């Protein structure tokens, strides 16, 4: 009988920001997740050649979560050759955590994107989804989308009953390109890393 709960936060994390951290913290507490694994993408099929160097994104993620108990960072996608798919990652995690329930944390704005995920029917068999609200998406819209996804490809989506802070990586990159403060958007160590390595400098 599965008795452990593992949360999974996948994303480009370009850069990781306080919104990601808040989502993970809420889900960890609300759903008794013993650990939350942050997994920066390596070469995602939907953002090829549009992200910062994967090793920078990995290091920023490590800096962001290193002081939080139960938060860990995995390099399994960064180290994988070729395109990185959630199916391959979840299949690997299932073998590494055979006695754990897997919960993939996503934003409500990702619900429509699930239809384009590689082998989504198999992904749905490997994990449950914790869906965090987004500003502009009502609870009724989320509920309708969840029911449709369950019917279309068997996904088990759970409303996290939480709407995270409205923070955008795109806005952060724009601010950084202008040399402006990122306080309140990203952890202090991430801001220092961005400016040290001039990641988003024009």
Explain the overall architecture:
The protein is α/β, with parallel strands linked by helices. Helices cover about 40% and strands about 20% of the residues. The protein is built from seven helices and six strands; from the N terminus they run E-H-E-H-E-H-E-H-E-H-E-H-H. The N and C termini lie far apart (about 55 Å). About 35% of the residues are buried.
Overall SS class:
alpha/beta
Shape: globular
Order of helices and strands: EHEHEHEHEHEHH
Per DSSP E runs of 2 or more residues, the count of β-strands stands at 6
Mean pLDDT: 92
How many H/I helices? 7
| Biggest pleated sheet | 6 strands, parallel
User: Within the largest sheet, what's the order of strands?
Assistant: 3-2-1-4-5-6
Alpha-carbon distance between the two ends: 53 Å
**Percentage of β-strand residues:** 15-25%
* Helix share bin: 25-40%
Uncertain runs are none
Q: What is the CA-based Rg, rounded?
A: 17 Å
Keywords summarizing the entry:
202 residues; alpha/beta; 7 helices
Give a topology summary.
Elements: E1 4-11, H1 18-30, E2 35-40, H2 54-65, E3 71-73, H3 86-96, E4 100-107, H4 120-126, E5 128-133, H5 139-153, E6 157-163, H6 169-177, H7 188-196
Parallel strand pairs: 1-2, 1-4, 2-3, 4-5, 5-6
């Amino acid at each position: 009988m599965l008795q452990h709960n593992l949360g999974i936060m996948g994303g480009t994390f370009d850069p990781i920001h306080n919104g990601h951290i808040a989502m993970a913290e809420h889900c960890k507490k609300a759903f008794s997740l013993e650990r939350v694994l942050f997994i920066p993408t390596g070469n995602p099929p939907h953002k090829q050649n549009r992200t910062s160097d994967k090793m920078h994104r990995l290091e920023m993620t490590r800096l962001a979560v290193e002081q939080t108990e139960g938060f860990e960072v995995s390099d399994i996608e960064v180290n994988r050759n070729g395109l990185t798919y959630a199916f391959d990652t979840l299949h690997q995690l299932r073998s590494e955590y055979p006695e754990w329930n897997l919960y993939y944390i996503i934003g409500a704005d990702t619900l429509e994107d699930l239809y384009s995920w590689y082998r989504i029917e198999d992904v749905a068999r490997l994990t449950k989804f914790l869906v965090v609200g987004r500003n502009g998406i009502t609870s009724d819209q989320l509920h309708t989308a969840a029911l449709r996804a369950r019917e279309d490809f068997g996904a088990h989506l759970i409303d996290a009953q939480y709407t995270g802070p409205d923070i955008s990586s795109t806005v952060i990159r724009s601010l950084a390109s202008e040399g402006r403060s990122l306080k309140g958007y990203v952890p202090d160590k991430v801001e220092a890393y961005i400016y040290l390595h001039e990641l988003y400098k024009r």
